[in-house]
Structure of HxlR family transcriptional regulator:
Amino acid sequence: MAARDYGQYCGITRALELVGERWALLIVRDLLVGPRRYGELAAGLPRIPSNILAARLKELQEAGILRRAPRSRVIVYELTPYGRELEPVVLALGAWGFKAMGDPREEQVLTPDALAITLRTAFRPQVAADLPATAYAAHLGPTGLLVRVDGPSLVVTRGDGPADLAFAAGPSIHRLISGELAPGRAIETGVVEVLRGRGDLLDRFATTFHLAA
Amino acid sequence: MAARDYGQYCGITRALELVGERWALLIVRDLLVGPRRYGELAAGLPRIPSNILAARLKELQEAGILRRAPRSRVIVYELTPYGRELEPVVLALGAWGFKAMGDPREEQVLTPDALAITLRTAFRPQVAADLPATAYAAHLGPTGLLVRVDGPSLVVTRGDGPADLAFAAGPSIHRLISGELAPGRAIETGVVEVLRGRGDLLDRFATTFHLAA
DNA sequence: CTGAATCCGTTGCGATACTG
DNA sequence: CAGTATCGCAACGGATTCAG
């Protein structure tokens, strides 16, 4: 089957048998943002060996967590409904690990899909509900993330589009979300570079997305 | 350090670096129920090699997730505050994996600590709030679990004690919690054996602890 | 050019034996 | 009882090659 089993009749062991192998939950993490092609997954997981990626995709498919879907000539991988139910697991892991991230090291990358999930983790619906609807465009190197907040609802997708504030950032955005770095200081120090729109909206961004470190 | 890293600056990768190794989260699972000695952990994880248990304990300790604590001459392992913050992760995994458990196989065991966490996962505080305070004693083979429900609060510990209902059960209790098996049928078919107290309270138990499959 | 399969060196795991 | 030591094996990591 999928993996070596633990010999216990328990939900946690079952879950770990299905998604406990190395890299598996990171594939799920990226697919939670949207369907991805093989190459997109490989790009979002720069250090995964291609044989491992292929093996995981096969295992996750057999476990009913994702499926291969043809999309106008090309194959994309997308989560099944059961796979999407892993979102609380991934968000809980992200919230817990957020506190142990420390400072970014030189060799560490921040991928768009990882940031998308971090934003979902850090999103405070009850805070956002009292703020005006806002669209942010966050750029990480070449790729962009479109972040739409409307009342208590959040949608994060890849790509660009009309936004009230467009900014470029890197791994240090972690310190903005943790509250370690004030929005004003983030712009001054170049951690966040305002590309278009109202830079003062970064304040609202930091209020909307917050996770204690 | 603890483990091979993923090369990403992301909360989820960080979490998986700390607790993503095989067996690690199962050690955390058991310690969430209470402090445990080395031998108790080994007994609760029948298939873990002793060298792996020793290695994981060392890694989890270095990661600040657990600590060795002397308790009147013997050493016990207990979670640190940061380790206890893994509870949402473990419960979310348990809830997700619960749906994929299927029927118990011959070689699969149900340990007291695993059941304790399953009960925490399946606990419905808002339902329990409207029911009288109740103490259950659940026996799995030799060891017992004391389950105290008082309004919306739940405490599950090892051991025996005064209970409104004491019963013996095995892995098939899964079908009671999932609602697949009605409490009356569970007693009739011997899946649950009433040892002491009011057997009709099993109804309340099944209402209090419920997780869809 | 994307989506893998193959080969092979390395590492972590599993089983058992052993020690303070 | 609480670990440590050893060894075979399976999984992982990296590079290369192959197929649609």
